[in-house]
Amino acid sequence: MQSTPILIIDDEKPVLEGLREFLEDEGYEVHEAYDGLSGLSVFRAIGPDLVLTDLRMPGMSGIELISEIRKLKEKTAIIVFTGYGSLGSAVDAMHLNVFDFIIKPIDLEYLKRTLTRARDNLQTNRMVQAEMASLREQLISFHLKLQEQIKKFADIEPFIQTGRLLAGILHDLTSPLMAIMGQAEYLQLIHPELDNLSVILNQGQRMSKIMSAIMQRIKSSKNRKLEYIYLNQLLQEEVLFLEFQPYFKHEIAKMWQLGENMPPILGISMEMNQIFGNILRNAAEAMVEQPVKRLTIRTWHDTSGIHVSIQDTGPGIPWHHREQVFQPFFSTKSTRSAMMGGMGMGIGLYYCKQLVQRYAGQIEVISEPGSGSNFVVHLPVGSNCADASGPRTDQE
Questions:
Q1: Looking at residues 272-294, what average pLDDT do you find?
Q2: Which ranges of the chain does DSSP label H, i.e. alpha helix?
């Protein structure tokens, strides 16, 4: 074990020789000096963490020596030797934050215990300083990331205003769309031979469904009340939103394995939208550069609760990133994810986990490099209710 350097400064040679022999037996690396000036020179050369010094010495006094040492290395543990005749100087030494005083003649057992306390105190100080340095680094890193996110969020503000404008436009389009569909149905009745009318009706119904889903999302974003939510229907609506992106609609195959008679969840719609919308978007973004693009959405329930699995055929997640994906500001998205609207902020999955835990649930990731990823959300029975009000049934 490495010995601890210690500096002894005393103008009494017998004291120095006795202390050197005692401390070397205790495992210390002993350095010594006979006066304050030479002691300061030795201190500058070796920079020990422990110093034993007398107060009354020729030339530079002990008080002056301690003051100079404090300028060079503030955290040095200084133990002062003093006699009954130098208590006034001892008071001055207290103002320089010395570790302890030992009255001459020196009690070696007391000195041993004092040095042990001093070393333990130094070790604790080092640990605290290291922790503080680590926290400072984390704070600086967090501050830099926060500034980056603030700049990104500033870019989002125009989209928020556009969303409000869109809500008004969709509301105004409802009546004209209903009129068009009504006229198409009338024409189909009197001219059944016109096949293209069914195309108009189908596309009109699709437009109506999209507009209704968007209006419901806007309404849910304003409503933070608890309600009964059917996850099968919510997942289908989230996929419908993703299909606004041609990439998702035409390039990604969707496989549905929705459980029957799924009980509803008692929760806030917007929070459930955020949980599963984020996971679905991440899955889609993960498959951008993959030759096989398949998204499998599965739901089921049992005695332990309700479960949702969203599996992709992306590149998978390395094991050392498995837990990091749920940490704030961690992102592995490529620049090509912008085609799905991804911003790479690294807060989507973190926020998902926070929301799931709010419902006393869990979210896990099952993934191997080259084998895609499967995010599974488990919501306990206590967070759902099988007897939802009204006759609404889940859409499979």
A1: 89
A2: 13-25, 36-46, 62-72, 87-94, 108-190, 196-222, 231-242, 246-251, 269-286, 348-358
Would strands 28-33 and 4-9 be described as parallel, antiparallel, or unpaired? parallel
Task: Supply the DSSP symbol for 84.
Answer: G
Rounded to whole angstroms, what are the CA distances from 351 to 152, 218, 363? Answer: 17, 20, 11
pTM for this prediction: 0.46
Of the pLDDT bands very low, low, confident and very high (cuts 50, 70, 90), residue 299 is: very high
**Angstrom distance (rounded) from CA 351 to CA 360:** 14
**Would you state the pLDDT for residue 356?**
92
Under a CB-based contact definition with an 8 Å cutoff, are residues 288 and 340 in contact? yes
| Per-residue pLDDT at 368 exceeds 90 | no
pLDDT band at residue 363, thresholds of 50, 70 and 90? very high
pLDDT (0 to 100) of residue 212: 73
CB 309 within 8 A of CB 297: yes
- The CATH-assigned architecture of domain 226-396 is 2-Layer Sandwich (3.30)
76-102 per-position pLDDT tens digit = 899 988 765 555 555 566 666 788 888
- Say how many CA atoms lie within 13 Å of 323 toward its Cβ: 1
Interior angle at CA 77, CA 75 and CA 81, nearest 5: 145
- Report the percentage of the chain scoring pLDDT > 70: 76
Same fold, 4-106 and 226-396: no
| Domain 4-106 grouped into CATH 3.40.50.1970 | no
Spatial contact of 259 and 233, defined as CB atoms under 8 Å apart = no
Q: Using an 8 Å Cβ cutoff, are 11 and 34 in contact?
A: yes
Q: Confidence class of residue 396 from pLDDT cuts 50, 70 and 90?
A: very low
Beta bridge partners of 363: 377
User: E-assigned strands of 249-388?
Assistant: 253-257, 265-267, 294-302, 305-311, 362-367, 373-380
Q: Where are the domains of the chain?
A: 4-106, 226-396
The strand pairing partners of 7, in sequence order, are: 31, 51
d(CA 14, CA 393) in angstroms, rounded, equals 96
Q: Is the peptide bond before 105 cis (omega within 30 degrees of 0)?
A: yes
User: Which DSSP category does 83 fall into?
Assistant: -
> For residue 163, which phi and psi values (nearest 5 degrees)?
-60, -40
